[in-house]
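User: Hey, my collaborator sent me this sequence without any context and asked if I could get a structure. I don't really work with proteins. Can you help?
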Amino acid sequence: MNDELFEINSERIVRAGISRRLFLRTTLAGGASLLAGRAATIFAAASASDNTSFTIGGDLAVNRLGFGAMRLTGEGIWGWPPDRENARKVLRRAVDLGANLIDTADAYGPETDELLIAEALYPYPKGLVIATKGGNTRPGPGQWVPDGRPEYLKQCVDKSLKRLKLDRIDLYQLHRVDPKVPMEDSLGALKEAQSAGKIRHIGLSEVFREQVARARKTVPIVTVQNRYNITDRKWENTLRYCEKEQIGFMPWAPVGGTRGMTNTALEKAAKDHGVTIYQLGLAWLLHRSPVMLPIPGTSSLAHLEENMATAKVKLSADEWKAIDALAGQA
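Assistant: No problem. I've predicted the 3D structure and written it out in structure-token form, which is a compact way to encode the shape of the chain:
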């Protein structure tokens, strides 16, 4: 499907009062009719029984499909985007489409991503959760150097609060564990900020299950953000630990990131179900675990529409079994 045509027609039918569900089902009907006996993908309206939401830390209810804002910055995740107004439009549209969990970091830009979010969405709609991160420095484009010193993290929290125009950050994540600083010291600084009312909940990023268990001895951990997707499941053990402990798992690069998602078998399966391989990958993540909180990012309105439609992809148990088998070979 042509992305631009999808976006234009989607907008028109919504304004005309036709549900997005009906539009998606109608649009895909032609492709589905050619499947010659194969079960077509069903785009169904979300409901409580669909398990489409998750409660972070016991009190932050979010839709499981969120939005990662990293790609809204300049090339190399550095500086302002070439089209600043487009970036703001993408953020607003993400919220319109149901993303009430937006993930960012002070290192994205650096700083510009948080500023863009405030420009686009402040004053924030009720129920919007903005998750940011600190503890990763940016010497230059494409460069990332951890800094987990307590004094540095305290400054990070205060500066993010100011850029985002918030009195309290709902979810603050330690961007990376600094091998030069004891984890307990880094988390101790965040615990102090939490006690001062500057942070509501604390999360981690790119950590082993043993590190999560260790961190929880210092402060409650409500989310973990590790690289994970249908073709890259290095952090499977960490995900299983999160499932057991009801910790939200936020997979970054949910559709492959800069590596992309190239797999002939999965591409064919996606085509057979009338979706893109990226939609299939996101749907697989949502299917994979009830604690999974994918945060796909894009600077394209058309791709955003495509990604967010994934939340309504429903396959039968047998279809998922077949996809799981293909994913295991990817």
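In plain terms: Residues 53-329 form a domain with the TIM Barrel fold (CATH 3.20.20.100). You can pass these tokens on to your collaborator as they are.
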